[in-house]
Amino acid sequence: MEPIIIGIAGGSGSGKTTLAENLKKEFNDDILVLSHDYYYKRHDDLSFEERKQLNYDHPNAFDTDMLVEHLAQLKQGKSIAHPVYSFINHNREDYTVTVEPKKIIIVEGILIFENQALINQMDIKIFVDTDADIRFIRRLIRDVNERGRDINSVIEQYCNTVKPMHEQFVEYSKKRANIIVPEGGDNQVALHMIKEQIRTFLGN
Length: 204
Known about the structure:
The chain has helices spanning 16-27, 48-52, 64-75, 116-119, 132-146, 151-173, 188-202; strands spanning 4-10, 31-35, 80-86, 91-99, 104-108, 124-129, 179-182. It is of the alpha/beta class and 204 residues long.
């Protein structure tokens, strides 16, 4: 039986990771979570300062072809070695992480509904829809506390790339979802419905 592939999209700070974690708590070892962020392109040719200036919210920032190929391999029952990305160094790490296929594979990221080849791999497409102010506050707290950023750089990046790319690509991709979850990943009614849909796919 091929794994079920679930796409969870939404703006930065919308609650995609929270939703994925809540599903993982329910299905435990049956779930593998792959973040689109793992697949940011490597930029060894650029200095740290140059890498800081890149637009990380545009589809071209990702090696989505590699992710599509990895999903195809997982569907065939093969293990993959996915990249690891450092948000502190703004580049890929020199090591990879090997993972085995699971019954349920969650792919989460801001732009996963922008690529048709990636969409074609998915059985369920979920868009987490959260108010822009809440998303910005969450991003600000996360980037300062977890990624070593200062407040001014987070605000500048949000205004220059995050917000315009959200409006151009992320918000547009919402119409490709099967399920839209308002108010983030803690929406218990939506979470229950998604769990039941997964159980139906699994035949439970």
